[in-house]
Amino acid sequence: MAPRPAPDLDLRRDQIVRAARGLAEVDGWEAVTMRRLGSELGVTQPVIYSAFAGGRQQIVDAVALSGFDAMAAALEAVPAEPSARMQAYRDFAADRPRVYEAMFSMPSGLAFGTGTGPQALQRAFAAIRVAFDDDLQAEVAWATVHGLSTLENSGRLPATQARARLELAHRALSRR
How far is CA 122 from CA 110, 126, 128, 146, 157, in A? Predict the structure, then answer.
């Protein structure tokens, strides 16, 4: 009997990240456990740990990083002007609330605001930065749309006024 080939580690990690994201979107992050991931994927917990030795936190961080890549792509797909980028950001947060939660609300080992963080974080900020005059304006725009998105996702602000809020934020940020 021939030995089993070693699994492609990148493929295994991608499967785990996709499974974690799917579980979180359906049942919330509390449902994302090593046991549940193993069950979803038909593997043992040691297989999960062989791909993510840092355990659940490393998986959540991987989901967050993939979220930053996806956010950057969503932002880059619209014109590089403030209102379009802010709307694309808000749409991303509304369409992927659990990924967004992993990106910004959950404990994370990811470095923010250093300018030297992971490439996915830098790319997402660059996709916002290109629409504004300078880093400070881009940071305030990001913080504004992030706050609105977080409050809307949590149900603390009604989604019915989402567009009006973004338009007001855009007008406020556009004043010179």
Answer: 12, 6, 10, 16, 29
Query: What 3 state SS string does 116-149 have?
Result: CCCHHHHHHHHHHHCCCCCHHHHHHHHHHHHHHH
How many other β-carbons are positioned within 10 Å of the β-carbon of residue 38?
18
Q: Report the C-alpha gap between 165 and 102 in whole angstroms.
A: 24
**Backbone dihedral region of 106: left (phi > 0), alpha (psi from -120 to 50 degrees) or beta?**
beta
pTM: 0.88
- Structure confidence by residue, pLDDT tens digits, 71-97: 999 999 999 999 999 999 999 999 999
Overall size of the chain counted in residues: 176
Q: Provide CB contacts within 8 A for 151, sequence distance 6+.
A: 157
